[in-house]
Automatic annotation (TrEMBL):
The chain crosses the membrane at residues 56-75, 81-103, 110-130, 150-173. Keywords: Membrane, Transmembrane, Transmembrane helix. This is Uncharacterized protein. It comes from the Bacteria. The keyword Transmembrane applies.
Amino acid sequence: MVTDKDDNKTVKEVYHVDSRKADNPVRKGDTVVEGQYKVKDNTNIKEKQFRRNENILASFFMLSYFWLLICLYSWDGGTIIFISIFTFGLPLLYYGFPFLSIIMLTNNKLTISIGYLSSLTAIFYLIFALSNFPLKQITDEAGHTATLTYWHSFSVILSIIVFLLIATLLFLYKIFQGRCPWKNGKSH
C-alpha cells in the first residue's frame, strides 16, 4: 500500500487494480490513474466538514445578497436609476458598493478584507432606514412621497441586518480558516 500526500490536505491510498480479481474490482465513481491504480479518497473528516460548512455559508451569503438587492431596489431603485441618468451613474456606485462584497468568496485574504469592508457600507442604509421608519418612497419627479407598508419597511431592514450578519460570519470563517490545526498538519 502506497500513500500519496496532496499538499497536506488529502491522503489517498493507491493500490494495484486487477479487475479480474473479485476482491478488487473497479467500480463506478472510482478514480483510475493510467489504468493501473485505483485511488481511494481518505480525506480528513474535519476538512470535509469545514468545506461543507464553507459552501453552506457561501450559499446563505448569496441568498442574503440577492434579498438585499431586491429590497433596496423595491425601496428606492427607480429614483436612483433616474437620478443616475443625469449624474453619469454616480448614485449607482453608492447603491452598488455593498455588492462588491462578493469578492469575499475568494481565498485571498486581501480581497476577503476588501469585500468585507465594502459589505459594511450597508450600515449607512441601515442607519437611514432605522431613523426614518416607516420608509418613504419617492413617487414622481416633483418629490412627492408615499409611505411603504410596515411589512415592506421591516423586510428592507431585516435584509440589511441579515446581510451584515452573514457577511461578518463569512469574513470570520474565511480569515480563520488558515489557523485550523488540520490545515497545517498539526494535531491537538
